[in-house]
Amino acid sequence: MAAASHSGKFLNHENPLNGETKDKLNEFFGSFANAANPLLLLDYDGTLAPFRVNRFKAKPWAGVRELLMQIQNQTRTSIVVVTGRPAGEIVALLGVKPAPEVWGLHGSERLHPDGRRDLEQLPPATLEKLNALRAQLRHDTAGGLLEEKPNAVVMHWRGVAPQKARVIAAKTRALFEPLAQMDGMTLLEFEAGIELRAGRDKGKAVKLLLDETRSRGPHPASYLGDDVTDEAAFRAMKGRGLGVLVRRKHRDTAADIWLQPPQELREFFSRWLDACRAGKPEPILQ
């Protein structure tokens, strides 16, 4: 799908899913006519905001915050951010008011809009191993950027020269991979980094959210993400909603459609807003 004008007609570009994407979007937004509370599930980095070497400078694409605020203020849609970050980082970066619900740490942490916070508890043996690894890496990060989470240890190398990045990645894997064999521990690779973690992933978080909303009756649901860490969420959406891959270049994915940010992302949110207002949006024309 290419960027849309206000008339609903889309410009052509090299998107191999162009025709199929239009059909799936028309069907999805058409379902709003008979639904009360759509569910909009969103990854943050790479999806709502471009990646930054300094992650605290990763602000949303131009126009995205304003569109999400309009959707939020309609009060019809439930917006939930599902991110690998600690949930508290998202509220300030996203800047949407009132703040949406945020599931952080890939789903192990839940920050409610009223400020209540739930954190999945890990077994003592798992915490002991993670703490020992943290202590080791504080003394030697092999040139990478260490990030410590309550349920994980993360090594980043975004912005590092390719040759040095390969060295950091190799040394980190040598440390992480043996520990990933432990019960309840998993190795999560993402663009320019690797994470040794425990606890639920995005797929389990999305399934819990979908199950919670099942009692409300028919409700369109969509998950938007960009990274391989979002694939579990895309799989959880199968048969229950629309998975949307949001990135500049297409890759193999379990998502249903592919959109290129930021223009197509803004158009998606604009159509969501229109569908909520009118109940039935204008279809995308060929």
Automatic annotation (TrEMBL):
It comes from the Bacteria. Its cofactor is Mg(2+). GO terms for molecular function: metal ion binding; trehalose-phosphatase activity. One of its GO terms (biological process) is trehalose biosynthetic process. It is an enzyme of class 3 (hydrolase). Keywords: Hydrolase, Magnesium, Metal-binding. It catalyses: alpha,alpha-trehalose 6-phosphate + H2O = alpha,alpha-trehalose + phosphate. Removes the phosphate from trehalose 6-phosphate to produce free trehalose. Belongs to the trehalose phosphatase family. This is Trehalose 6-phosphate phosphatase.
